[in-house]
Amino acid sequence: MNQARKTAALWSSLSTRELAEQVQLTVKAHDARARALWAAVAEDQVLAARVRGALAGLKAEFRGHRDEVMWLLWVNQAQQHLTPAAATPARPEVEVPSVEEAPEEIALTTVPVDRGDSAPNRPTRDIPAMMFQEPPSASR
Known about the structure:
elongated
């Protein structure tokens, strides 16, 4: 980890082009040293922002390249290492309305069904019927 902090300190003084080259080499390595380096870079907010910019440039550079998927995977992994866990937004809790709070158009109703036995009526939903449209290729 000490070596990673030294490297991160060195990266702070690099020009944008030199930083982009170093980021590309580190992304390509995607090893334990790289993960330690991403953790050290994430501690410095300014350097982390510069590295995220270099990663975005790297994504754009490899768009359309034959190895695009591989590079996008590596870049996304590096971006995840740079994003602190506290910064990732938590999923908001969604309240599910009860049957009594449901709008009238989808409210539960009881429909009498003559089944010939004494089974109780079950609640159903008033949902508009959907029409099925046959795909154009089936008519040929």
